[in-house]
Amino acid sequence: MGAWVEIGDRVFVRRYAFFDQNIGVVLGGSEALVIDTRSTHAQAREILTDLRELSAPPVTVVVDTHGHFDHAYGNHVFRPATIWGHERCVTFMARTGEARRARIAAEQPTIADDLREVVIDPPDRTFSETVVIEVGERPVELRYLGRGHTDHDIVIGIPGAGVLFAGDLIENGAVPYFGDGYPLDWPATAAAIAPLVDAVVVPGHGDHADRAFVEEQAAAIGGLAALTRRIHAGELSLDDAVAVTPFPAYPAEAVRRPMVRALAQLRGELR
Question: What pTM was computed for the model?
Fold first, then answer.
């Protein structure tokens, strides 16, 4: 943590201690693109300060992997840059932004004061499936592969650099977060990421990884979904399913919550 690491040609990642979060930067000629903007304006300003270490050109483009507070509440600091995201990211941030701000302020008191100044600023450029944008002379590919961590997660690929940013569709060091997720869809979405990984995949949080890691995580999420279907069919109790979780390294409650969410999806309760 604490330094920019070049993981592909003029593609950098920096891990920040708060939530062990990854921020990506793509340099292209006289422009720079930033992937995700952190939780508050103060944290976003820290990104801009740290970019001086790269002698980076002005940030003209921002991409939100999704609309959760820790990935998009710093957006406003980067204006007048263009901000890209999935079309449903805009809807999600408009619907949840203020309530989420209040909830996170209560849950994370160390950033409560900073959250008060946040202007919730959703993407102004959107797409539905795939779009290629340019940063200087460089193409950057944005893809929506399906529902998973949310209903609007995207991945970002940089052709020729061998790097894919996967946002929170892939987690390294923690159980994937299912609070706004779609556990029955997520396995296929995660599996669709693997063929796109040439060399390095950058998760939303934790150390960067490779294709094998993505395949393993897709299989684990698939195993969780399969267990939940057995609960729904009356073949297993929730406690029995938790005992044989595909995420055995984590506390029982951390794997119980995704199963409860998956059961809600099986009952047709998720939008």
Answer: 0.97
